[in-house]
């Protein structure tokens, strides 16, 4: 898998969105953001939207599962 070329501002945006995600889910967060961005034209708006959509989704899943950590496949551990 090839790296995704992001600007410094886009990387900061992803890092800020990642702060909303429980620490043990941040790897899954980064993987999902990368998967969603792959193959898209990477403007600041799309990076922001994708990063925060993924962060909110992971946060909701974690809260719905009673705060239990999810593995990278999204299954509760």
Give structural notes:
The chain is mainly alpha-helical. It has one domain (about 10-65). α1 (about 10-20) packs parallel to α3. It is built from three helices and no strands.
Strand content: under 5%
Most strands sheet: none
User: What would the average pLDDT be, to the nearest integer?
Assistant: 85
* Number of separate strands: 0
Count of alpha/pi helices: 3
Order of helices and strands: HHH
In the residues, how many domains can be counted?
1
Distance linking N and C termini: 27 Å
Helical content stands at 55-70%
Helix- and strand-based class? mainly alpha
Summarize the structure.
The protein is an all-alpha fold and 77 residues long. Helix content is 57%, strand content 0%.
């Amino acid at each position: 898998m090839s790296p995704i070329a992001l600007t410094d501002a886009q990387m900061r945006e992803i890092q800020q969105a990642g702060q909303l995600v429980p620490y043990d889910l941040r790897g899954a967060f980064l993987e999902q953001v990368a998967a969603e961005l792959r193959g898209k034209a990477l403007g600041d708006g799309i990076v922001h939207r994708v990063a925060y959509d993924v962060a909110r989704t992971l946060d909701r899943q974690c809260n719905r599962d009673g705060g239990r950590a999810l593995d990278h496949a999204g299954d509760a551990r």
